[in-house]
User: Fold this.
Amino acid sequence: MNTFISILVFGSLVCIGVALPFVCKSAIEKSNFKIPLIVLGTFAVIFIVGLVSDIAIYDEKYTLDLIFAMLFMMFSGSLITSIGLLIFNAAKKKNVKAISIVTGSSLLLVIISFVLVGSGVGVDDSSGTKANLVSETTNSSESESESSYSEPSSSSSSSSSESSVKNYEAVSYDNLARNPDDYKMKSVTISGQVMQVQKEGKGYMLLVWQNDDSDQLVMVSVMKSFKPDNGNILEDDEITIQGYAYGTQEYDTTGGSTNEVPLIYADQKVVDNGKSQNAY
Assistant:
């Protein structure tokens, strides 16, 4: 998400969390909650607009882990506000029953959200296509041709200015696969040959192999805004990507087993050098 949409989405969530206890307290006490309800509704609309705008721009669906993380932010804001109201009411010796209920409910929701996020209930967008990204394992020649894997990189003048500020570390498959947590959310760059292309909306989910080695596969997510300038990415293309590592991802092979490979999300335009000379 760009900066403006990030502010819309996450800022509105925090504001919803702040306004929610006032609405709940007023509703329980059967008092006038018109103003806090209007505030809550306004920021809810802003949140929806920001969410829709993000999907329209990047053609990406929010993953469950991100949704739970956003809800956790909202519930946390609600809990902090509720505790503040509880302390205020207690200091003024007012009836604290209503706000105690709100505080308890907010605390429960924060705990549930924290457990869901921490337990890894959320999955990456790429998991929805893992069954479609398959690697032939019936014989060695098919395995080599299909597991040829490469990743996207930047090529436009606008993205080159960004990449000059961002330092992308050239990383080997061995390091990515052996120590995925060490590189998670770090900016990396890799090159390779595309083994398989799966369309994801107007973007791609790619399997790329490095060093002409069918065992060195990497999965790459490319949003439509980072597609190469010279057209669509095709199988057997030699590409370079710049992006951030995001741990590992499993996909199903045609042999009925699963394979776990490093996952990278491109955040610069892909450099596509056309069909590899090593293509079968």
